[in-house]
Specification:
alpha/beta; TIM Barrel; 2 domains; 16 helices; globular
Length: about 325
């Protein structure tokens, strides 16, 4: 599968962009574990054009996470175009590697974004969505992709026609989350409509499916049943970056990968923590690891007290000591 000139290989599995999750430390780790491409957290177009330091920092990427997409969102056409130009030149503006792909977020369902017409709120204004996409494609030199949903609600699942229109204005790939905006993350993702887009004879760009992929078997089934070109994994990656290796193993060998031992999970948690501290320092590097640390060791017996200590301490030495204790106590489980 290719996005413009970027070859992601056969049946690639990508890391979904997620706010407060897909920072550089996690992106690097997921690439090391087999993700074919990764995406930044959501970068607000209005923040970029106001030169907001937090928005600019989100565009800072590293060579060892490439290929990486910078994802922008907004609802004002002029702001989106200017933000796309800035993302196109992220290496000069924010430092680091920059962007390989410019991704437009037309999928986020949270009220503070969708409620003001951005993210999946744009599903209520498909003409405006297409116009913004066309303007962004014409403004940048890098491949432009879109991530969106099936529609606003059950009565307006417009994705099959919308996909054609987005393709016609020049996007290089389309990721579809198999829910409407009104579903948020409730219920099951409807992959049948993702398959309908992929099997539309008018479509020739890669179609990437997203929603409810939380195991290697589900990924394999989605490829086989719906024919998508790629799969994007989101919430199932929390504290579980090895899910990419699990999926890749089954896709490439036909055999399941064994669950990593606690010792192996501790090694990954240490690597993740070191990257987070390197990139963000103290205490921020610890604060922003907590979402993951609370998930790395799910299911261990008599773990509640240890988990609470792990996600409340701000002492680096203590945190590494807790990881040492977990390894010593649970070893090869």
């Amino acid at each position: 599968m290719k996005i413009g000139p970027i070859d992601l290989g056969e049946r690639p599995v990508l890391l979904a962009p997620m706010e407060d999750v897909t920072d550089a430390s996690f992106r690097v780790l997921c690439r090391e574990q087999g993700a074919a491409a990764v995406y930044t957290e959501f970068v607000p177009s209005d923040g970029l054009i106001r030169d907001a330091s937090k928005a600019i920092a989100k565009m800072r990427t590293r060579e060892d996470e490439a290929p990486v997409g910078i994802q922008i969102y907004g609802h004002i056409p002029e702001s989106m175009v200017e933000a796309a130009r800035m993302a196109d030149h992220a290496a000069e503006i924010a430092g680091g590697h920059g962007a390989d792909i410019i991704d437009i977020n037309f999928g986020c369902p949270v009220t503070k974004i969708a409620g003001r017409g951005a993210g999946s709120g744009m599903m209520r204004e498909p003409d405006k969505m297409v116009a913004i996409t066309k303007a962004v494609v014409e403004a940048v030199g890098k491949p432009v992709t879109v991530k969106t949903r099936l529609g606003w609600d059950d009565s307006s699942k417009i994705i099959v026609e919308l996909a054609e229109r987005l393709q016609d204005v020049g996007i290089q790939a389309l990721t579809i989350h198999g829910r409407t905006r009104c579903q948020m993350y409730r219920g099951q993702a409807d992959w049948s409509l993702i398959g309908a887009v992929k099997n539309n004879p008018r479509m020739h760009i890669p179609i990437i499916g997203n929603g409810d992929i939380d195991s290697a078997q589900k990924a394999l089934d989605a490829f086989n049943r719906y024919g998508v070109d790629g799969i994007m994994v989101g919430r199932a990656t929390f504290g579980r970056p090895w899910i990419f290796r699990e999926i890749r193993t089954l896709l490439d060998t036909g055999a399941p990968m064994r669950e990593p031992t606690v010792r192996e999970k501790v090694a990954l948690a240490r690597r993740h923590l070191a990257l987070s501290l390197e990139l963000k320092g103290e205490p921020r590097g610890i604060y922003e690891m907590r979402r993951h640390l609370s998930c790395y060791f799910k299911g261990l017996p008599d773990f509640k007290e240890t988990r609470i200590r792990m996600v409340t301490t701000l002492d680096v030495a203590e945190l590494y000591g807790i990881l040492d204790t977990i390894e010593e106590k649970y070893g090869d489980l």
